[in-house]
Write a structure and sequence with these properties.
With 472 residues, the chain is an alpha/beta fold. The protein has 13 helices and 23 strands. The protein has helices at 65-79, 103-113, 124-135, 137-144, 197-202, 215-233, 261-265, 275-278, 285-294, 306-314, 350-367, 387-404, 420-430; strands at 2-13, 17-32, 35-49, 53-54, 57-59, 62-63, 86-93, 119-121, 148-153, 158-164, 167-174, 181-183, 189-192, 256-260, 298-299, 317-318, 324-326, 332-341, 376-380, 410-415, 435-439, 449-457, 460-466. An 8-stranded mixed sheet has the order 16-23-22-18-19-20-21-17. Strands 1, 2, 3, 4, 7 and 8 form a 6-stranded mixed sheet that branches. Strand 5 and strand 6 form a beta hairpin.
């Protein structure tokens, strides 16, 4: 059995805090005479966890790139690793920091300077998923067969993921966080997020910047924020003014609700009794944490570092072992994924698949830049595939790809089933001028982009499927 340890990092730049972890992933290519080769990550270990830093800001709208870079360089030294050792992981900007005016450029800068193969990610859905992985909610749902909800509450947002049978089945995000209201040590309000305006008005709550807040008013606000969050998670409410983006709440009712994030970490602390005790961190985080605790939700096993652990340890997977790689371009970053259903009808219909492939490729050619490879074609709804059908698939995919992406020299195809080597060979025969990368056992259900790494165990390569979403 071929095995290899690779180094992965996770860097989480949140509204209030920034932290980094280094982990080791053990990848094994398991082969025997009775089964097809299978490659998977069989062990994950955190080998270094940084201190938790206050996110460096120049002002309310700009993250301090220079201080952040110095911080990262020092933490790499502390961890005893160099850039060329990093093969996987994620750099994530979360919460309100993802809405700052320079967040996108900073994230890409960090991704390029954090190692050869570090994923740049942002977006509320992915944040919720990573937190659910890092907090233990996904694992708990697999072990108990119950629906587990994880609420990751940070400084600016609460990212929620519902988990069942070891998978995330629903995600949504609310404007609920400890730093949406900020106070000085005397209890004067220095900042109120505009995202709370409608919520406060609807609940007849009056809080103004520059005025001293009463403990009773702050407690009422935090209690209502916690109740609004939990009631929406329980599907008792079907709408909320605090939703980050429109969401249709399903009727799924979680059996257990866990809270992670910085606010989750404070749930074990004593109840604050005065405004001064509330404002110990310059915000309402301690009081919000108390009110989550008071409505009988549980603290997650991992709280403050849940998202960064999910990013550094759980965001990386490996492809199948029966892949086709006819290119020397690896590693590749930020390839947009376009999903094309192979069979939506009862039987294989060559013409209808060609119509879907043409429409998807044409639409993608107008959206994405002229990088090479321009997109990764993800084949879903893949039934049993005969030799004849495989040849027809290869002919249609290569023809529509070349027609829509003139000048492209590399074609990336993703499959859910173990068919990549055969399909890759068929594609290579169709178009000898194209470099073909065909991978299988890829779960591309969640995410808009994919990164492809170097081979890590035999022919298998490390893969990260993610989103690159930025709010205005």
């Amino acid at each position: 059995m071929l095995q290899k340890w690779i180094t992965s990092i996770g860097l989480d730049i949140g509204t209030s805090t920034t932290k980094l972890i280094v982990s080791k992933l053990l990848i094994a290519n398991q082969q025997n005479q009775f089964t097809l080769p299978g490659c998977q990550i069989i062990d994950r270990r955190v080998t270094y966890a940084s201190s938790i830093y206050t996110t460096p800001m120049l002002n309310e709208v700009e993250i301090d790139v220079q201080r952040l870079t110095v911080l990262l360089e020092q933490e790499y030294k502390n961890a005893g690793i160099s850039l060329d050792q990093v093969e996987a992981g994620a750099v994530i900007i979360t919460g309100e920091t993802a809405r700052k005016q320079n967040a996108e450029s900073i994230l890409h800068y960090l991704a390029e300077h954090a190692g050869d193969f570090v994923v740049a990610t942002a977006g509320a859905d992915l944040e919720g998923m990573l937190a659910a992985k890092g907090s233990g909610a996904i694992q708990r749902s697999a072990e108990t067969n119950a629906v587990i909800a994880n609420i990751d509450v940070g400084g600016g947002t609460a990212n929620i993921a519902l988990c069942q049978n070891g998978k995330v089945i629903e995600t949504f995000t609310l404007h609920v966080g400890g730093r949406l209201i900020r106070l000085n040590s005397d209890g004067f309000v220095t900042y109120i997020s505009s995202y709370l305006t409608e919520f406060l008005k609807n609940n007849s709550l009056i809080l103004r910047e520059g005025e001293k807040a009463t403990f009773e008013m702050l407690s009422s606000i935090c209690q209502l924020l916690a109740e609004e969050t939990v009631n929406y998670v329980k599907a008792l409410n079907q709408n909320s003014t605090l939703l980050v983006s429109p969401h249709t709440r399903s009727s799924i009712h979680p059996e257990t609700i866990m809270v992670s994030g910085g606010v989750g970490a404070m749930m074990e602390k004593q109840e604050p009794k005065t405004v001064e005790e509330v404002a110990i961190h310059g915000d309402v985080g301690p009081l919000l944490a108390y009110h989550f605790q008071s409505i009988q939700v549980s603290q997650a096993a991992e709280t403050t570092r849940a998202t960064v652990i999910g990013a550094g340890m759980q965001n990386t997977e490996v492809s199948g072992s029966t892949v086709y790689i006819g290119s020397k371009r690896l590693p590749l970053k930020n390839i947009p994924i376009i999903e094309i259903p192979v069979q939506q009808e009862e039987t294989w219909n060559q013409q209808l698949f060609q119509e879907r492939a043409r429409a998807s490729c044409m639409q993608a050619s107008t959206i994405f830049s002229a990088e090479d490879p321009p997109v990764a074609i993800a084949l879903s709804h893949f039934p049993y595939c005969s030799y004849k059908m495989l040849q027809e698939l290869a002919k249609i995919i290569s023809a529509e790809f070349i027609a829509c992406f003139k000048g492209a020299k590399c074609l990336v195809v993703l499959c859910e089933q173990d068919i990549a080597k055969a399909l890759g060979q068929a594609l290579a025969k169709q178009r000898k001028e194209l470099e073909i990368i065909c991978l299988d056992q890829i779960d591309f259900t969640h995410g808009d982009y994919i990164d492809l790494g170097l081979p890590v165990a035999g022919e298998a390569i490390s893969v990260s499927v993610k989103t690159l979403a930025f709010s205005s």
